[in-house]
Structure formats: C-alpha cells, structure tokens
Amino acid sequence: MARYRARRAVALAAAALLMTVATACGGDDGATGGDQAAVDDGATLTLWTRAATEAMSKAYAEAYNATHKNKVQVTAYPNEEYPAKLASAAGAKALPDLFAADVVFAPQYASQGLWLDVTDRFGALDVKDKVAPAHVRAGTWEGRTYAVPHTIDMSVMLYNKDLYTRAGLDPEKPPTTLKEFAEQARAVDKLGGDVNGTYFGGNCGGCVEFTFWPSVWAAGGDVLDDKGTNARVDSPEMAEVFALYRSLYEEGVAAPASRDEAGPTWLGALQNGKIGIAPGPSVWLGLIEEKGVKMGVAPISGPDGGESTFVGGDAIGIGATSGKAAQAWDFLAWTMSDEAQVEVVAKNKGVPTRTDLASNKYSQADERIVLINSLMAKGRTPYARNFNASFNDPQSPWLQTVRGALFDDAAAALAKGNADITKSLQQG
Amino acid sequence: MTTTTDPTRERTAGAGATTPASRPLRRRRARRAWLGIAYASPTAAMVVLFFLVPLVLVGWMSLHRWPLLAPPTLNAPDNFTGIADNDLVRSATWFTVKYTLVITVLLFAISLGLALLVQHRRPGVGMFRTAFLLPMAVGFASASLLFLGLLSDEIGPVNDLLGRLGLVDGYVSWTSGSANSALTSAVVLVLWRFAGFNMLILLTGLQAIPPEIYEAARVDGAGRWQTFRRITLPLMRPTIALVLTLMVTGSLLAFDQFWILTRGGPDNSTTSLVMVIYREAFIRLDLGSAAAISVVLLGVLVVFNVIQLGVLRRRSN
C-alpha cells in the first residue's frame, strides 16, 4: 500500500509539475500567420492517433512517405487513455506535429486552441466544398477551422445472414423501420440456444449515442440544439427509441450482457456469430466477416421509417505547439486528395472523407460499401464543446440517463437527464 | 532531546586563539558537514522537485482558471465553491469513505490473521510467507487487468468454474452487474494484492515483542486470548497505527482498481474521489477545479495523518 501510495503521489505530482512548469515557461507558439504554403522538404512529422484509428493513420502515412520527402511517424495510444495523453502533452506544450481525435471531441480541442488555425489553408483547397461537411463543422470553433476529417466511421445495422436464413427471414430484406428491426430480432431470438436477437452497449454512453441517435434523427427528433449547449433528450422520439430497446432487453431478445456492455467486448459479441441483428460501426463489417460470419448491412431507421447515421470517426489537425506547420499541412492536404481517398481509404474498404468520391472504382465491387458511403449525406455529427464530459465519459450524465431509460424509471431518467446534460454542456 | 557540548570547541574558546591543532579539526568538521549535505541533497532535491514544488503549484492552480495552453487567470474562490455544486464529488466522497472503511477493516483483519499464522518458525512456513507476499510482485494496474480478465464472462475462467460447481447459473457480470458485486470485485483484488505486504509489516511488529514477556505471561497462567489481548495487541500498537495509516491513506487515494476494473460503474456507484479529479483535469480539461478538489483531499489526508501519527507517537512514548 505504501508503494502504491507513493507511486500515486509521484505520478500526480509529476503530472502537475509537467503541466504547470511547461505552461508557466511557455512562450509564443506561432499559432497564426506565417507561410500558408504546403512544404515537402524532408521534415519528420509526428502523428498521434487512438488505437481505433491506428490502421488507417498508418496506411495514410505509409502511402505519403512513399511519395514524399517528408516522413510521417504514427504513434497510437489506447482509446480510453488518449484524451488524457493529449491533455498532458498540451499542458507540457509538447503536442505532436499532427494529432487526430474522435470527431465529437473536436470542438473541445478547437476551443482550447490545441490545434493550429487552418482556416486560410483549408479555404485555399480546391476540394474544400467536397470534404465531409459534418466533420469540418466539428473542427470549427467561432468561425475558424482547426481540423479536417481523417477517418469516417458510420453507424449501420449489421445482420447475420445465416441466422436470418435459419430463422426463416429473407436475408436480402433487412428492416426498413425500427419496429421491423425489433420483429426480426425477435424472430432470430426464437432459434434459442445461445443465439440472441440483438445486442447493444447498455453501459457505454458512446455506444448508445452512436447507435440510438440515428433512429431519433430519422424520426425527426433531435438530441442537441445547434450550438451544443442545450440537450433535447426528453423528446418523445428519444423516449420511443429507448422504449423499443428496453422491451427487447426485458423480453430477453437482447443478449443479457447488453446491460453491462461498456464497449470493450462489443465487437467480440458480434464476431461470435450468435447475434441476429444489431446496430454498430460500419468499419466492423470486415472485422466480423474475418471470423467467417456472413453479414448484411442496412441503414438505421426510425421507429416508423426514415434513415440516418451517426457520422463518427476522427478529425485531425496540426498541433498548436508544432514548429512544422507547413510540412504538416502538406500531409493533411494530401490526405484529402483523390489519390489518398481512393488508393488508400477506398482500397482498404474505408469510407472516403470526400462526398464526391462516395462512389469509386473500389466501392463498386461491394454494394454494401456503396450503401454505407451513400449514408454520409443523411447522417449527422453532433456538435458540443463539452461532448466528452456530457456524453462519452463513464461518469457523464448521459450514461446515467441511458441506464435509467433502459433499466429503471425511463420517464424520470430522461427528464432529469435532460437537465443534468444541459448543465454539463453549459459548464465553462 | 539532549544537547551535547563539544570539548574541542570549549577548549578553543577558552584559549581565546586558534591553536594549530584545532584548525584541521574544524576543517574536518566542516568537511563532514558538507559531506552530509552532499549525501542528503539528491533526496532533498527530489523532495523539493517532485513534492514541494508541485504542492505549491497545485495550490496556486486551485486559485486560477487554468486552460491547457492560454495563460491562467485568477478566479478564487470559484474552483472551491464549485465543489459544493458537483453532485459527483458528493457521491464519490461517500463511496470513498465507505470503501476506506470496508477495506481497512477487512485488510487489517486478514493481514493480522496471516501474520499470526506465519509468525513462528515451523517447517514450510517460509513458503507460506513467500506465497502471501508474492502478489506484491505484480504491478497494481497489471493486477487490476488480470482480475478484469479473470472475472470477465467472455474470456475469464471464474464464471465457467462457478457454473460447473453449480454456484452460478447463466450470465453474471461481477465488475458491472451491480454496485455491490463491483465493489466486492475491487475489494477482493485489493485484499489479494496488499494483504501480504501488510502481513509483512505486522510480522516485524510481532517478532519485535520479546519472547520473555510471553513466557512470563504463561507462567502467570494467561490463556491464548488473554496473551493476545493483554500483550500482543498493546505492544503492537505502533506497528498497527502505521499499518492503519497506510491503509486509510491508500484507500482514500484509490484509483487504479476502479478505473480499470469497474470504470466507476455501474451508475457511478464505484467512482472514487481521485477518479473525479481525473475527470475534471483530463475530460473536462478544467485544471483549476481538479487542483481545488486535490487541495481539499490533501487537507483531509493531512488531518487523518496528524491524528493517526499523534496516536502512534503517544503509544510509542
């Protein structure tokens, strides 16, 4: 216990020291002005990313390094620890030249000035109007652009074609409404044994917002106001979506582990091929099929129809303390080029960050990819400065709301949740 | 405290002049003093750099609005008044106190039990002492991950084993199923990890009691329970106070086990105070507020330690 206490004390002290000394001693970071041109002069650029995005970041870097003098070195950190890593690095004025972050955290980082202002550089790009608008908005703070899209991940319905056939459902006819989704999940669940109709992350704020909110949007509801300072989670649309998932859990159609799923074993649960249909990230399509499970893809719909998606993924910008802004921009501008979007992203079955490249020579080979790419125009990326603290963090008021709405007094949870989330969103 | 007079100095002063013989002595003494300072300086530098400076800075930070990159601005006492409005701080304080009570009682009882079991030299006792201490060799974060894996319904063997024994039926989530099971998982982890270490400290206390006292008690006809209550416990008081201080301080600063094992859930039921500090600093990026909670927690710890060390000193005397 003594060593444990000592280690904690030293760690806290060191973190505080690092942050404070560095903040106190730091000078001008050259955040604005200077040469706007992209430079390729053989500089070595450091790029940080979270584990979930590592593969795509490395694919970008590899292709860029092969054709440019600049060299990009990618370092990935565990997803949960990444925000803390960035905050410590910022406090120590030791941010990397480039860093990516979950797109929903982008307004917070932009407002804190962790990325360089790239408004003029981005404005000079020929393709600026074709770059995923929801992502660009997320990287904007007070009218200035700080980040651009890096990877795109959207929420879709993923269903197991073999289980659909066994349950007597047509594997080519996925649900077009959320009510149909529930019926099909019930049908698959009747197979019994260790097969379950559906699965969701009932103890994971990020998982629920990613998979439930599109149904709310498809029904014409909203979750946040435009400025991201007022919650709208007490809407009838939200209540209806929660009620539907709640009934699936109570009937035992959703796997019992749905209640405790905090995220880490979510993918594994879908990979074992025992779940009929579940909303999840589009990038998991390949990861689930790797395990020999034949999957179909459908848009997430509202209770009575419509379709939408949560346009997630990562945004990327130039670290505010970097001295190689021109070289870093050379890389960022290249990632938005046709070459990078088609030969790196589309070739690896990713979703292009350019709306005009949704249909490309690689996507045509798989109609599911065409469907996923086409959803971007219908999807949304919620925008709020305090998004992480209000929605994604395990201690967020949103997770309390989710738990109450799914497993306790739903009406009270949504009403109280709306007030708590609004308070959290408005905190300075 | 006793004072000693230096005969050399008195002689020198009495002579009224520096004699040739005393000069090398004084030089040697000065050299020895410098040597002492040199020996102590690495530790002193570390204490100043990693304890005093951060301590002052955290106090300073708690009086400011402290953005990550922009210059700080004075906002005292907002960071402190904000603590009262923070519901999470309230629930985390209550939980941390509850956890501290549970862990201190259980950990102390088990550590003392283990120490009493292995205090005498008998064949094979060395093996048991080593076995009890061995979990200390595993880093605490690694141990937490190990338990997370073992208790997982997906990949861990515990549920399969209990299922085969007929003790559980179907799906059970130990780390997030209910507030009690989550707390129990963390308590079992901490007991497993730290009981051996506390046993070792208590063992040194036990072995410092002279065997003659026990013999005298036996001659006087004292039974086992009487011997334990009248001799072992009173003579162990300094050691017990030390162990309790370590346990209480460690528990009030609990973080790793809950951060890794339960993520503070379910429903914030296992969110400790240090986790709230972490959330304020690294999720909300509000370093001033995090520093203010740290300062309050530090104050509570200082009060606890002063009381406990006061007891320790009184008993020692």
TrEMBL record, chain A:
MF (Gene Ontology): maltose binding
Recorded superkingdom: Bacteria
Record-linked SUPFAM superfamilies: Periplasmic binding protein-like II (SSF53850)
N-terminal signal peptide: 1-24
Keyword Acyltransferase: no
Pfam annotation, one family: SBP_bac_8
Record's keyword terms, sorted: Signal, Transport
Any GO BP annotation: maltose transport
Gene Ontology CC: ATP-binding cassette (ABC) transporter complex, substrate-binding subunit-containing
InterPro entries for the chain: SBP (IPR006059)
Family: Belongs to the bacterial solute-binding protein 1 family.
PANTHER family from the UniProt entry: MALTOSE-BINDING PERIPLASMIC PROTEIN, MALTOSE_MALTODEXTRIN-BINDING PERIPLASMIC PROTEIN
Name used for this protein in its record: Sugar ABC transporter substrate-binding protein
Source taxonomy: Bacteria, Bacillati, Actinomycetota, Actinomycetes, Micromonosporales
Automatic annotation (TrEMBL), chain B:
Compositional bias per record (Low complexity), positions renumbered to this chain: 13-23
Keywords, sorted A to Z: Cell membrane, Membrane, Transmembrane, Transmembrane helix, Transport
GO biological process, one term: transmembrane transport
UniProt cross-references to Gene3D superfamilies, sorted A to Z: MetI-like
GO CC annotation, single: plasma membrane
Pfam families assigned: BPD_transp_1
InterPro entries assigned to the protein according to its UniProt record, in alphabetical order: ABC_transporter_permease, MetI-like, MetI-like_sf
Domain ABC transmembrane type-1: 93-308
Localisation per UniProt entry: Cell membrane
Superkingdom of the organism of origin: Bacteria
Main location: membrane
Transmembrane region(s): 33-61, 99-118, 130-151, 171-192, 239-261, 281-307
PANTHER family in the record: ABC TRANSPORTER PERMEASE PROTEIN (PTHR30193), INNER MEMBRANE ABC TRANSPORTER PERMEASE PROTEIN YCJO (PTHR30193:SF37)
UniProt-recorded name of the protein: Sugar ABC transporter permease
The organism of origin for this protein: Micromonospora costi
Lineage: Bacteria, Bacillati, Actinomycetota, Actinomycetes, Micromonosporales
